[in-house]
Write the structure tokens for this entry.
Amino acid sequence: MASLTIDDTLLVAFADGELDALTTHLVAEQIAQDPALAARADAFRHSAELLRQALSSPEQLAVPALLAARVIRLTHARPAFSRRIGTRSWGGIAAAAAVAGFIFGAANIVKLPASPANAQHAAVEHILDEIADYHGVFAAETEHLVEVPASRRAHLESWLGSRVEYAFKVPDLKSFDLHFEGGRLLAVDRKPVAQLIYTGPDGKPVALCIALTDGHLGADMVQKDDGDLTMFGRGEGKHAFVVVGPASNRNLGTLARTLPELLARG
């Protein structure tokens, strides 16, 4: 019988009874030959049972939006696995993965925030990921890089400022060798995000973003790298301030540390 590469996500599905008959047989066969794998499978079964006991009423079954977004990212990263288990298993896998990540802290399982500070940090990370997805698409544009051009600066300040509930001035970033191109409106979790777009000497765009959120954030600076993109973000009040651009631009961290002060003085 062919062997199967077993990771924690597959074990969660096995513990929850979500796999097809052939995959279940392959997993069970390898568990029978590997005591460490067997112990981990038992732990997942236990966590799944705890979850079923804890979420015994309908109103408790809702998965938090931030957690759901992070589990969706995990699922999208494993398309073959997603097709195999089918869409009906989303609720079980999301919930079981949540409990498993909380108990074990495994790197490839979703982790529930253990404290308000961690929750705020995770919220900013989520916003960075979403903005990076947008930026990766728009950065390839030339003629349609922005929605509203730089010539309408006053309109951008009024329009975007009202949408994100934050009064700002478009910063002059010539000292950073950046030329203002204009701006656009994005959305993350149904909340508006104002994006001001600049280009450097190499023509690659750098974006300053103001994201309106539901919570009251106070997260320290978060940095993430995604291929040739680097992102910095931090939370302050009900807003997240983000800088995203090419990893080759060494000014991104400095720009991020001076937000929102730069936005205040223009």
